[in-house]
Design goal:
Blueprint: E1 4-8, H1 14-27, E2 35-39, E3 42-46, E4 57-64, H2 77-80, E5 83-91, E6 95-100, E7 109-112, E8 117-120, H3 123-128, H4 139-148, E9 161-163, E10 168-173, E11 177-181, H5 195-214, E12 219-222, H6 227-240, E13 245-251, H7 259-268, E14 272-278, H8 280-293, H9 303-315, E15 320-322, H10 327-331, H11 335-348, H12 351-362
Parallel strand pairs: 12-13, 12-15, 13-14
Antiparallel strand pairs: 1-3, 1-8, 2-3, 4-5, 5-6, 6-10, 7-8, 7-9, 10-11
Helix pairs in contact: 5-6, 8-9
Length: about 375
């Protein structure tokens, strides 16, 4: 498991700091593989892809493009040019920079005390740090979870801990700590373009993203049968050729089972398809594993099926699973989004016409 963690703690000596980092590394499965970089009271540690220590950085993930060193980070534009999945930290002894990718796909949790800043890509590891241990559950986070089925934004399930948001970085010096955004999506439309041109660009962009992900070691696909995963499987097959491994998790409840659609995609793209059907008993026997796997409460109805899919993939020697997310929301793939589109048209009708012509029929 690749992790990134570290701290700025001027009250902890260098030897004590390194010893604590190695203890945490051992406790969370990094063994002797934990790589430590120290600049005075600043410590960066982690496992996985590690650049040259002369750059003063540590990172995990699979970024596309070169991540900068501490001095090259500037105002964040260098981070904004990097894509892919990553969590990144840098220091030269005068300050600390910590950043996540545009979607915060690898999270960073952090905690501030009167004299220290501690961060980690793993919440459990952060909670094991002596300066963090003993924090209480956040009542606001609990309320938000019950309302949204997720702990949103910068909040964390524990009081005193925050998360870096998507496209954000943390800048820490001896004087202050600043959480700022280095990247925002651009939704502006400077000019109208033909629909056919936009469609071609969309397919090319998606194809390039899938091809890059499919180039990772031992790839496979999670095929639910929906718009997202079927599109990703098709593009992966286009890049890799016939026989791409794909796994589908079916259900014994017909209303939730999309195996029929998954089989159509599997035949269409000549996938090496594995179909596994699960029952309520399978959910019950694995729910403890799911709860233990999440750092925070997360009301994802497909969490158990995703776990089973990952377990099957591991048995088959698949190291990286490709899946789709957000396609239904963007393109109206589910019935509820198609209905929402109709409501959007309704809201564009002038109020007077709605009240006199449309509302009477809906009453």
């Amino acid at each position: 498991m690749n992790l990134l963690f570290g701290w700025h703690d001027p009250e902890r000596g260098a030897t004590d700091s390194e010893s604590l980092a190695r203890q945490l590394g051992q406790r969370f499965g990094m063994g002797e593989g934990v790589d430590i970089l120290q600049h005075g009271s600043y410590l960066l540690a982690g496992t996985g892809q590690q650049p040259d220590s002369s750059a003063g950085t540590r990172q995990v993930g699979t970024p596309t493009g070169q991540l900068p060193g501490y001095r090259e980070a500037g105002d964040g534009q260098a981070l904004g040019r990097a894509g892919g999945q990553f969590a990144w930290a840098a220091s030269d002894g005068s300050g600390l920079l910590v950043a996540v990718d545009r979607f915060a796909s690898i999270p960073i949790f952090y905690h501030r005390t009167a004299h220290a800043l501690i961060f980690s890509s793993d919440l459990h590891l952060l909670l094991a740090h002596p300066a963090v241990a003993g924090l209480r559950i956040s009542s606001q986070a609990l309320f938000d979870y019950l309302f949204f089925a997720v702990v949103p934004g910068h909040l964390c399930a524990y009081e005193g801990i925050e998360k870096l948001g998507p496209g954000c970085w943390l800048q820490q010096t001896a004087e202050r700590v600043i959480n700022r955004r280095y990247w925002l999506p651009d939704f502006s439309r400077s000019q109208r373009r033909p629909s056919a041109e936009l469609q071609t660009e969309l397919v090319q962009t998606l194809g390039a993203a899938v091809a890059k992900a499919a180039s990772l070691e031992q790839p496979g696909c999670f095929l639910s049968g929906g718009l997202d995963s079927s599109s990703v499987c098709g593009l992966a097959a286009k890049h890799l050729g016939p026989g791409v491994p794909a796994i589908t998790i079916g259900f014994d409840e017909a209303a939730f089972d999309e195996t029929e659609y998954a089989s159509i995609a599997a035949r269409k793209y000549e996938l090496d398809w594995h179909n596994e059907s699960i029952t309520a008993d399978d959910i019950q026997t694995r729910i403890d594993q799911v709860v233990a796997g999440y750092a925070e409460p997360f009301g994802n109805s497909s969490a158990v099926s995703a776990l089973i899919c990952a377990q099957i993939a591991k048995q088959q020697g698949i190291s990286n699973l490709l899946a789709g997310d957000g396609g239904d929301e963007l393109f109206g793939g589910n019935d509820r989004y198609q209905k929402q589109m109709l409501f959007g048209y309704y809201e564009q009708v002038p109020s007077l016409l709605r009240k006199t012509l449309l509302d009477p029929f809906a009453a």
